[in-house]
Amino acid sequence: MPNNRNRNQLLVPQCAQALEQLKFEIAQELGIQFPKDGYYGNMITRETGQIGGNITRRLVQMAEQQIAGQSAQFNR
Q1: Are 34 and 40 in contact (CB under 8 A)?
Q2: pTM for the structure as a whole
Q3: How far apart are CA 71 and CA 64, in angstroms?
């Protein structure tokens, strides 16, 4: 049984499934395979870092697009 030591708490718990899906999409884009047994301990740190970095990059892009869309509405 995997030991889940993640202490991060989501501000919006309803987004957990979307973040999990994003993780798998990014890993697939990078050609990184997740272990079938669910144990991430054998994954290379570089791989997990690439996934996390790309998740952060994607979330920042989404936020920038949302802010740009809101500011465009105010400029009308």
Answers
A1: yes
A2: 0.71
A3: 10
